[in-house]
């Protein structure tokens, strides 16, 4: 029935429960469904079942059939949706004993085959018994994955693996990762600098071993087994980028609140919240082990178990059981999960709209090469916050111009003036003359130029380059109105289709006298007079990736000395990232090109291995002669050793832009402009995932390359190990000039 | 003119010389050609040439043309073959100074473009100035390589990089890696555990950084700069597997012998010999710097410079100069190189024949699935040594049988007997009956069976399974003759074409009465009587890879209790290997399949990262019930930290086989049977080269998997980092049953 009616956290609303072997699937599903759970996780065979003799079946011989009573039996596809199979926990494909090993491999193959036959959606696999050494386990899974088309394998991965004997580990896994903290020597990788604390192994290492051998197959996921002790938040964060399919939550991990109800510690609550937000399902495991008091009507206002017994609205949730007479012993746990799920903050409207774009690869726009569609402009224009920032930037620039003009008493030439005087009529005429080559230079614009500044106030020449359907014209006009400045605006736009919309706007706003429309490419247009302010919105997700530098270099020809470019400067930022989803999606194209293309992505299930580092900065106007927009940067990302090892799938990119003065426009997480949604981050993939040992720095090289007709990036990882340069010579991806 | 007339060491016979900038190529080539050198290495531009202003050319702008006097000018393609270009040594694409960096990048592009235009075969690149950090250098090379189709880039790699300031390194490189041993701090990778000794960087690390970023491009090679101090032999050995194109040998590295002639130290001689054998050319660099006495007729028997002045035949070589009057100052160096080259041991006939197979990938035979061609059999049969070993094994087995028979006084049943008595006629008849289903069961064979053992001596039943054209029949008959034992031989062969050859052999040898030909698959044939000895030659390069185990399991049905299989057992061996050539060749197929296929290869330019480890063993007869021929092994290869880091391209495989008792047949290097050439090693490639840090162990997993219709291997590297399992489920390569 779901943990709550809300739909904003995807699959996370469905909770499962691990139950003993059942001979009657419909009855079991029904029983737990009454208790609230949406699906059951149940053994595929009886605990004592072993592969029939010969104990060592010859490879290639047919596996012996199951006995009907020994195995999970589902005769209706409707139940298959509500049942997740569980592979026997005794299976040890990497046992040092060859007999155990062979029996384990045979049993594992047998059970996986049976689960696939039943059409189950997923199977939970026991944790590797030797976490640091599980090649045989990985090999059997790898072979099985080759034959699977839809059934997922959920490998149980204890978040923390206590460094104890294998026998104990087996029990621990069955009982829900109890028995932490013992320190018997087990050896193996991950023990050093373990983020799991002293005497414990990092469960992530076991996971990585298996999935690396399985070549990062998409049907292999992790079912994280939560223990009573949690690793550091930094190490938990790695799982955001991994293929986590479920969280296994043993009842033993719960504590009792004052009223005796099972509740979770604050860190456990935060862990669950994190996974709920990632859309990860919870599976309750183990028997009820809390003495819940007999149901009684909750006394209103009674002192409840602090954080847990009171809902977000302050009313006592009381864990009331709908049918007290039939109360299932696990019901209080389910009630508590419902409580945790329901009290998650509501997902904002914007994020909800962006949900369908989460971790979805988009090839960046090429606005210079292609003309955008009206709908694309419309989407951009919905970003009210962005244009408010532009308005503020223009406003501040105008105010500064006014102040400078006031400070300067004498004026001799309009070219020396911070603000063109109304006597600058000659330029106005010249403009009229020039714009005739623009197809949509309207008579109204000419009239505006002729009458411009007729009121005697100061007139500022402002050019919007890349005006699109006109939102920056609107923002500029508003700013001018606030500043009490009269503008002479040139709206330069190369897309003839977009201009029609500007014309319409000018007519409806009555701005025809103040705004001239110029249908031209800003790089080639001959401006009739110098501009004091140049406004543009040419930035891509990585700042310069839509060729803002090249466009503005071309446009700055008609900027007056001392003129202002809005934006003034912008800087790109990068961070190394884990994202199984994105790696898998890029890999699915099965070619080199897609691994050498940056993507615009609403990053969701991802983990940043380290804080971002600044990369390339561009400032406008650019006084260099000649201007060199090629760039190179080598950046080193240092990592917290306590966060453990991680896998690197690529780099997340952002930008931060100074529009004017302190008006910042940013999608860089530490400074992200509030409520602004025009840009998703950019993602630079890597051809092969890179294992990054705990504490090892990541070093990457990035080049912005320019040729006569295109601009492109090349990138490479040089530490912890040197890898190939991606997109050499722009062979796979470039932006056309 | 070549260092010698011998052709057995390939290109190594051609030596080059590094010369200053020349404005007259024909004259320069001619001058050095007179001195003996086959080609010159000369700067592409004058030393003081710099890219013309603008110092920072805008990317995409055309490079300024050279001035005719500033650059190497070749107006005839005939000279291009004798000239290798040298890129200016001042170039520092990774200089911390952006201006130097940009000028370096521009100059490097400029010079490479010019060299390609001239049609040079190769260009020598200066060593990275910052060996541990040269991403920009790598990026320019990577871009250049994209556009090259035949011109090779030879990156100068000092074997040892003294850990000094960059300025010093520059000079050191120009002067031939002098100035070793200074210990100024430079930092960077490779300093720790450097195989180059304390205070020195491992040149291999710089090489690896560059070529990894260049994605292991085949046109990028190393020109190894030899210094006065050499690193350890273990670290030098790594270069065997790398793409080494030339050895740069500075005159300053030579010492003077007692007579004042330039000679090399013993380690340097060994180094040169190693590269000569790999077919690597030597380039002499620097000015003559030894005071060679004026030419005088060498006094016969005069005490010469120990190891160097006396030829292998004891006669003084004397470094006589053909034209004393015109003697070039570098002539004594060239003479010495000639001396070193000429005294290399002659390549044996067998190795010479195999030269064309060196590092050439062959997909293993599938003798079970396919019938071999007569020519293939003929090639096999040429291996006299192999059949001598078989003869010896059969001889010893027969001797042991005789001894056992003598020890056993009472005989009751032929099945208990180590040797079938002559009264075993019934079996003979049965055989006659059975073999009628074989198409070539000749009347002669029946007659042989009828008359078998007529002389009353002991008769041993020996079956050759997979008789081919009969070489094992011949070896067995010879052994029997030596042992004084009469054999009743069944020659079982599934290829009906091969049988014709056996028939011919029996006729010419007069063995028709002793040998029955059975045209059948040994796995399905019903033998007329039990065999006491089963002889087969079903081994592949990896022992079991041509399905010897499966075939012999099938054939052992007709082995008498206590019967002997020749071979008795065999074990496969593996070692991690560097082989740029093989990696490149596999990669050239541009698909996954070829990376998941083992190849039979005459390994030549390869380096084993560690000693071999045993993998799978099979013994015959196999008493297990049921027989399981699947295998799994996890092997760890430990490495000498002093050997430095290395790159892993795959695994070299071998086998060792006990034919009978102490008769060993082996292609495992430590025990390789002398003069036996039937098997080349096997090579298991890896999809991606793996960087193995100095001292880090390599761990690999290998599975031999069996299904009803095929057998295949799967393999994976799990340390230093876990990688994907190759050939999952036999998807790319298998051997059909």
TrEMBL record, chains A, B:
Active site: 537, 546
PRMT5 TIM barrel domain span: 36-342
Origin: domain of life: Eukaryota
GO cellular component: cytosol; nucleus
Binding, S-adenosyl-L-methionine: 377, 386-387, 493, 521-522
Molecular function GO terms recorded: protein-arginine N-methyltransferase activity
Ranges of biased composition (kind: Low complexity): 169-181, 436-450
Domain PRMT5 arginine-N-methyltransferase: residue ranges: 350-566
Site feature location: Critical for specifying symmetric addition of methyl groups: 380
Record flagged with keyword NADP: no
Key words of the record: Methyltransferase, S-adenosyl-L-methionine, Transferase
GO BP annotations, alphabetical order: methylation; regulation of DNA-templated transcription
Family to which the UniProt record says this protein belongs: Belongs to the class I-like SAM-binding methyltransferase superfamily.
Protein known as: Protein arginine N-methyltransferase
Organism: Pleodorina starrii
Lineage: Eukaryota, Viridiplantae, Chlorophyta, core chlorophytes, Chlorophyceae
Gene: PLEST007186
């Amino acid at each position: 029935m779901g943990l709550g009616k809300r739909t904003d956290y995807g699959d996370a609303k469905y909770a499962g429960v691990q139950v003993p072997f059942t001979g009657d699937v419909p009855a079991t599903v029904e029983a737990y469904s009454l208790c609230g759970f949406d699906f059951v996780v149940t053994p595929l065979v009886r605990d004592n079942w072993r592969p029939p003799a010969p104990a060592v079946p010859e490879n290639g011989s047919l596996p012996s059939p199951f006995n009907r009573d020994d195995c999970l039996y589902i005769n209706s596809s409707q139940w298959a949706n509500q049942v997740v199979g569980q592979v026997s926990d005794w299976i040890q494909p990497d046992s040092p004993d060859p007999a155990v090993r062979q029996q384990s491999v045979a049993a594992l193959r047998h059970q996986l085959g049976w689960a696939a036959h039943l059409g189950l959606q997923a199977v939970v696999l026991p944790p590797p018994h030797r976490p640091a050494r599980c090649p045989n386990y990985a090999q059997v899974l790898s072979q099985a994955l080759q034959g699977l088309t839809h059934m997922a394998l959920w490998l149980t991965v204890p978040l923390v693996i206590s460094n104890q004997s294998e026998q104990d580990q087996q029990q621990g896994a069955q009982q829900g990762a109890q028995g932490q903290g013992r320190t018997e020597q087990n050896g193996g990788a991950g023990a050093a600098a373990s983020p799991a604390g002293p005497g414990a192994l990092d469960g992530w290492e076991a996971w990585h071993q298996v999935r690396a051998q399985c070549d990062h197959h998409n049907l292999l996921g992790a079912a994280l087994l939560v223990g009573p002790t949690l690793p550091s938040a930094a190490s938990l964060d790695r799982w955001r980028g991994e293929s986590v399919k479920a969280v296994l939550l043993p009842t033993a991990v719960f504590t009792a609140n004052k009223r005796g109800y099972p509740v979770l510690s604050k860190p456990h609550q935060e862990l669950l919240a994190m996974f709920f937000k990632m859309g990860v399902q919870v599976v309750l495991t183990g028997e009820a082990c809390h003495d819940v008091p007999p149901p009684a009507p909750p006394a209103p206002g009674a002192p409840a178990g602090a954080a847990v017994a009171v809902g977000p609205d302050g009313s006592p949730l009381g864990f009331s059981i709908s049918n007290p007479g039939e109360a299932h012993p696990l019901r209080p746990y389910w009630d508590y999960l419902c409580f945790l799920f329901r009290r998650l903050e509501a997902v904002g409207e914007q994020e909800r709209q962006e949900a369908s774009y989460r971790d979805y690869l988009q090839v960046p726009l090429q606005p210079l090469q292609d003309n955008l569609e009206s709908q694309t402009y419309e989407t951009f224009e919905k970003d009210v916050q962005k244009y408010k920032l532009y308005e503020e930037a223009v406003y501040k620039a105008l105010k500064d111009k006014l102040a400078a003009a006031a400070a300067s008493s004498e004026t001799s030439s309009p070219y020396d003036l911070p603000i063109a005087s109304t006597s600058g009529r000659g330029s106005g005429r010249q403009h009229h003359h020039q714009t005739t080559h623009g197809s949509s230079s309207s008579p109204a614009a000419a009239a505006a130029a002729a009458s411009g500044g007729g009121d005697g106030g100061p007139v500022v020449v402002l050019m919007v380059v890349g005006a699109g359907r006109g939102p920056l014209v609107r923002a500029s006009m508003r700013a001018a109105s606030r500043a009490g400045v009269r503008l002479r605006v040139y709206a330069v736009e190369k897309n003839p289709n977009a201009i029609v919309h500007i014309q319409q706007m000018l007519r409806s706003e009555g701005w025809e006298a103040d705004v001239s429309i110029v249908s031209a490419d800003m790089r080639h247009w001959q401006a009739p007079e110098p501009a004091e302010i140049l406004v543009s919105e040419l930035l891509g997700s990585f700042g310069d990736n839509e060729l803002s530098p090249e466009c503005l270099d071309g446009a700055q020809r008609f900027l007056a000395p001392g003129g202002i470019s809005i934006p003034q400067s912008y800087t790109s930022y990068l961070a190394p990232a884990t994202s199984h989803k994105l790696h898998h999606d890029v890999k699915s194209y099965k070619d080199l090109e897609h691994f050498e293309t940056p993507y615009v992505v609403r990053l969701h299930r991802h983990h940043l291995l380290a804080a971002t580092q600044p990369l390339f900065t561009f400032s406008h106007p650019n006084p260099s002669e000649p201007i060199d927009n090629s760039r190179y940067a080598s950046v080193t990302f240092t990592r917290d050793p306590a966060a453990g090892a991680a896998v690197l799938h690529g780099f997340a990119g952002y930008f931060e832009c100074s529009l004017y003065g302190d008006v910042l426009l940013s999608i860089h997480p530490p400074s992200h402009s509030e409520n602004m949604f025009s840009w998703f981050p950019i993602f630079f993939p890597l051809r092969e995932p890179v294992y990054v040992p705990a504490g090892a720095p990541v070093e990457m090289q990035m080049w912005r390359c320019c040729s006569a007709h295109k601009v492109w990036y090349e990138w490479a990882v040089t530490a912890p190990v040197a890898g190939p340069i991606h997109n050499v010579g722009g062979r796979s991806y470039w932006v056309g000039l």
